[in-house]
Design brief:
Radius of gyration: 25 Å
Low-confidence stretches: 149-165
CATH class of the largest domain: Alpha Beta
Distance between the termini: 45 Å
CATH architecture of the largest domain: 2-Layer Sandwich
Number of helices: 14
CATH topology of the largest domain: Beta-Lactamase
Structural class: alpha+beta
Number of domains: 3
Helix content: 40-55%
Mean pLDDT: 78
Oligomer: single chain
Largest sheet: 6 strands, antiparallel
Number of strands: 9
Shape: flat
Strand order of the largest sheet: 6-5-4-9-8-7
C-alpha cells in the first residue's frame, strides 16, 4: 500500500512511515488518517487498495441484483458498508471499501447461500450512494407494493373515523417486519434528504407524508392508508409513548444511529378527526454548519452580519420559517464571537 501511494507521488515516504510508527493500524484507521483528513483523494486510496489486494476496482456501481437485496437486510449493508451486486458461477460479487473484515464475507455468504464471496473495491462515496439508491429510495415502491387489498383491515369505519383496537393487536401490528421496514425507510429518506421535520397526517380518503425541506413542506409518496394505525403505533413505541392512549396529545423522543452519526428525533402526536397526526423534528448535530462562509448569505449580508457580531454590545433579530436555519445562524454567531474574544 505505502509503496504504491509513495511511488505515485500521492504521499511522502516520511508521512507514511510516521503513521505506521505509532502503532499497528488497520485500513480503516489509515483511511481515516489520510482520506477523511483530506490529505489523499478517496478515489486514489480505493485504487491503491484494489491494486495492493489484487482486486477489481469499480468506479461506478450501476446494476444490482434485486434478489440479493431481498436476502441481505439494509441495516447490515449500511453497517458493513458492503453491497451484494450479482451472482457469478455460484459465487456472489460484493462491493466493499475495506477488504480486511472476514465477518463481512461470512455474513453475506450465509445470507445469500453462495459458495464463496468475490470482492470488488469501490470508493466510500459511490458505495454509500449505491446502498442508498438500492435500499433507501424505496418508500414509494414499498408503499405501492403494500397498497393491495384495504378491505377488512378493521382500522376505520365506513365514515372514515377510527374504531377501537385491542392494545395487544396494536403492538402486533407495529411489530410486523413490513411496518418496521417502512417506518425505517421513511426516517432514513428524511435524514438523507436533510429534512428538518416529518409530517404524517391522516385525512378522510388518504394518509399524507410530508418532509420539511429548506423551510418548505414537500409532499412525498403516501404510505397505504390501511397501515396508518400500524405506522403510528410503531413510531409511538419507538418514542416511548403510550400506544393505548390515542385521544390526548403526547410527546416523545427517538435516538437513532445512522452511518456513525447520532440523530435525535422529537416526536409529537396529536389526535384529529381521522386519527393521530404525527410530527417528528429531526435534530442532526453533525449537519450543523458553524462557518459564516457556508451559511449561504449574499456577500453584502454576510459583511453586515460579520460587522454586527463584532460589536461589543447590542441585539439583533434572526427571523424565518421552521427549518430555515435560525438556530444554525445563531450558533455560528456564538462560535465567531467566542473566537474573537
Amino acid at each position: 500500500m505505502g509503496h504504491l501511494l509513495i511511488s505515485r507521488g500521492l504521499l511522502a515516504e516520511e508521512e507514511w512511515n510516521a503513521t505506521l510508527e505509532k502503532e499497528p493500524v488497520s485500513l480503516a484507521v489509515l483511511a481515516e488518517t489520510f482520506v477523511e483528513s483530506g490529505r489523499l483523494p478517496e478515489a486514489d486510496w480505493a485504487v491503491a487498495i484494489a491494486e495492493a489486494f489484487d482486486l477489481p476496482f469499480l468506479a461506478e456501481i450501476t446494476d444490482v441484483d434485486p434478489d440479493l437485496l431481498s436476502k441481505v437486510p439494509s441495516d447490515l449493508a449500511f453497517k458493513r458498508l458492503a453491497l451484494p451486486l450479482r451472482r457469478d458461477n455460484g459465487s456472489v460479487v460484493v462491493a466493499v471499501t475495506d477488504p480486511e473484515p472476514d465477518q463481512v464475507y461470512e455474513d453475506f455468504r450465509i445470507l445469500t447461500g453462495a459458495a464463496r464471496i468475490k470482492v470488488v473495491i469501490s470508493t466510500e462515496k459511490h458505495l454509500r450512494q449505491a446502498i442508498q439508491k438500492s435500499y433507501g429510495a424505496t418508500v414509494e415502491r414499498m408503499a405501492a407494493d403494500l397498497s393491495g387489498d384495504r378491505e377488512g383491515d378493521g382500522t376505520t369505519s365506513e365514515t372514515g373515523l377510527e374504531v377501537d383496537h385491542d392494545i395487544g393487536n396494536l403492538r402486533e401490528l407495529a411489530g410486523e417486519p413490513t411496518v418496521v421496514n417502512l417506518v425505517n425507510l421513511i426516517l432514513f429518506e428524511a435524514i438523507r434528504d436533510k429534512a428538518s421535520d416529518i409530517h404524517i397526517e391522516p385525512f378522510e380518503a388518504d394518509l399524507k407524508l410530508r418532509y420539511r425541506l429548506d423551510g418548505m413542506l414537500k409532499e412525498m409518496p403516501p404510505p397505504p392508508k390501511h397501515l396508518r394505525l400500524a405506522i403510528t403505533s410503531r413510531i409511538k413505541i419507538m418514542a416511548g409513548m403510550n400506544i393505548a392512549e390515542r385521544f390526548v396529545p403526547q410527546d416523545g423522543h427517538i435516538r437513532l444511529s445512522l452511518e456513525g452519526r447520532q440523530i435525535d428525533l422529537r416526536v409529537s402526536c396529536c389526535p384529529t378527526v381521522y386519527g393521530e397526526s404525527v410530527v417528528l423534528r429531526i435534530l442532526d448535530k453533525s449537519s450543523l454548519i458553524l462557518d459564516i462562509q457556508e451559511l449561504g448569505m449574499a456577500e453584502e449580508d454576510r459583511s453586515k452580519f460579520d460587522e454586527v457580531i463584532r460589536r461589543p454590545h447590542g441585539i439583533f433579530l434572526v427571523t424565518g420559517p421552521t427549518g430555515s436555519g435560525k438556530t444554525t445562524t445563531l450558533y455560528t454567531a456564538l462560535i465567531q464571537i467566542f473566537l474573537l474574544h
